[in-house]
């Protein structure tokens, strides 16, 4: 059971990490850009 879920959870964690880095880039670029 644990070995079955392992690849899926790793993939899920990678997806979360990618989304967090993308959101971080957007937030940092929004913070640097002056508000319209």
Describe the structure.
The protein is mainly alpha-helical and 36 residues long. The model has no long low-confidence stretch (mean pLDDT 76).
Question: What labels describe this entry?
Answer:
1 helix, mainly alpha, 36 residues, rod-shaped
Helix content: over 70%
Strand content: under 5%
Q: Rough shape? A: rod-shaped
Number of strands: 0
List the uncertain runs: none
Largest sheet: none
Q: Which structural class matches the secondary elements?
A: mainly alpha
Order of helices and strands: H
Write a brief structural summary.
The chain is mainly alpha-helical.
How is the secondary structure organized here?
Blueprint: H1 2-32
């Amino acid at each position: 059971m644990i070995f079955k879920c392992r690849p899926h959870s790793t993939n899920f964690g990678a997806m979360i990490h990618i989304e967090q880095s993308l959101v971080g880039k957007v937030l940092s670029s929004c913070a640097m850009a002056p508000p319209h």
